[in-house]
Amino acid sequence: MKNKLVARILYEIADLLELEGVPFKPRAYRRAAQAVESCSTPIEDFVAAGKLSELSGVGKAIADKIEEIVKTGKLAYHEELKKKLPIDLYSLTRVDGVGPKTAKLLYEALGVRNLDDLERAARAGKIREIKGLGKKTEEKILRGLAEARRTEARMPLGHAYPIADELRRRLRKTGLFTRLEVAGSLRRGMETIGDLDILGTAPDPNAAAAAFVGLPDVEEVIAHGPKKSSVRLSSGLQVDLRIVPEESFGAALQYFTGSKAHDIALRARAVARGWKLNEYGLFDEGGKVLARKTEAEIYARLGLSFIPPELREDQGEIAAAEAGNLPDLVELSDIRGDLHVHTDWSDGKAPLAVMVAEAKKRGLSYIAVTDHAKFSQMIPGLTPDEVRRQIEEIARLNG
DNA sequence: GCCGTTTTCGGCCCGACTGTTTTCAGTCG
Ligand SMILES: Nc1nc2c(ncn2[C@H]2C[C@H](O)[C@@H](COP(=O)(O)OP(=O)(O)OP(=O)(O)O)O2)c(=O)[nH]1
Ligand SMILES: [Mg+2]
Ligand SMILES: [Mg+2]
């Protein structure tokens, strides 16, 4: 799967164009990069099918570039742009607090091209001498280097869930928060998540934020304010917390759930109506509140049916919501059966009748009983005769 | 460079925190 490689090159092009002062194109390249990155289908498949432009944000020009990357592993346009600034922008901007402008400044002042150069310059105390940078920036860069060198690993959704739950439990225990919800890619149910995004309301936001950055396994405080704080845990996982006024909770949940592209599209929709949408609410020309308490109100006021978080990727869901054409998502209640169930006939814990009763309680219409057969002394299993008897009991329960 | 029941041309989201700034640019969500 070459999605990561393609995204990386597109992101670099965005930074390089931005540094040249080119307007709007950086935004287009970033949007395309993000679309490719968050696409769970290999981008090669789109190329093979000639369907790259089906990705919203990818047009003819970028589609051609993606095809070139997939076929040759590189892109002439990208290499040409890099001649003017021959540095590893992608790696350098992975350092916390280092963006394209700082990377360029570091290259021009000190010849820094990569992370090793950056570390040498920081250790030698050269960075604090650059006009516009200082001691704190140098120290922050030194702290950020190790993290930037780690191989980029997004966390599987299933690993992130329990961590988020535990974090929420610990924050709730401080007694300083009234509401706490998980937002970001975790709420959207993405297969992998880059960080944890948590939204809260609190009577005393300063105290709540202080409790957050003071959690035991916080290794680094990236930002600390009454509305927004960010930390890195000792595991390397970043956690972002937004604290908003109670009445803005719906607008804030909409903002913080994202995705970024979905947020931007919704905000543009508000602008087209002469309104403004931010994490505090939807406002008309005069600043009057149109909606803010719930997400549902925000979508309704923008003329859209409610869009479930799982669909919020700006890949056609807004048009569908406007037309009332949103697909029905699979819910827990849609699960009809369980095709792998053990009972106490082998190594399961519950008797067959209990499993059947529980399955009915959960609204399942069938289960497949898949007890072990006898094949080792170590694992309990059914003999051919027991299988026949179990089949009879199943028939009785079905009857 | 992309996109569209306001448009196929003319727009392109909005705000919080930090550091070195004497008034705001850069980075990030
Ligand atoms: N309006 C707006 N919202 C943004 C922007 N960047 C991020 N957000 C919002 C939407 C995101 O889903 C949310 C959390 O940001 P993250 O960087 O954590 O992204 P997200 O959780 O979607 O993906 P991740 O798995 O963390 O990479 O903040 C932005 O540039 N503008
Ligand atoms: Mg996130
Ligand atoms: Mg985040």
Written account of the structure:
The strands form 4 sheets. The protein has a 5-stranded mixed beta sheet, sandwiched between helices. The model has no long low-confidence stretch (mean pLDDT 95). It folds into 4 domains: 149 residues, DNA polymerase beta, N-terminal domain-like (DNA polymerase, domain 1), CATH 1.10.150; 87 residues, Beta Polymerase, domain 2; 76 residues, 2-Layer Sandwich (Beta Polymerase, domain 3), CATH 3.30.210.10; 67 residues, no CATH class. With 399 residues, it is α+β, with helices and mostly antiparallel strands. A hairpin with a 4-residue loop joins β6 and β7. α1 runs antiparallel to α2, α8 runs antiparallel to α9 and α13 crosses α15. It is globular and about 85 Å long. It is 47% helix and 13% strand. It has 18 helices and 12 strands. The structure holds 2'-deoxyguanosine-5'-triphosphate and magnesium ion (2 copies). One magnesium ion (MG) binds next to α11. The chain binds one DNA strand of 29 nucleotides through α2, α4, α7, α9 and β5.
Give the arrangement of secondary structure elements.
Layout: H1 3-19, H2 25-37, H3 43-49, H4 60-72, H5 76-84, H6 89-92, H7 100-110, H8 115-123, H9 135-149, E1 155-156, H10 157-173, E2 179-182, H11 184-187, E3 192-193, E4 196-201, H12 205-213, E5 218-224, E6 228-233, E7 238-243, H13 249-257, H14 260-272, E8 276-278, E9 281-283, E10 289-291, H15 295-301, H16 317-323, E11 337-341, H17 352-361, E12 366-369, H18 384-398
Parallel strand pairs: 4-7, 11-12
Antiparallel strand pairs: 1-3, 2-4, 5-6, 6-7, 8-9, 9-10
Helix pairs in contact: 1-2, 8-9, 13-15
Bound molecules: 2'-deoxyguanosine-5'-triphosphate (DGT) and magnesium ion (2 copies).
The chain binds one DNA strand of 29 nucleotides through residues 23-29, 31-32, 56-62, 93, 96-102, 132-134, 136-137, 140, 184, 195, 197, 222-230, 240, 242, 255-256, 258, 260, 263-268, 270-273, 276-280, 322.
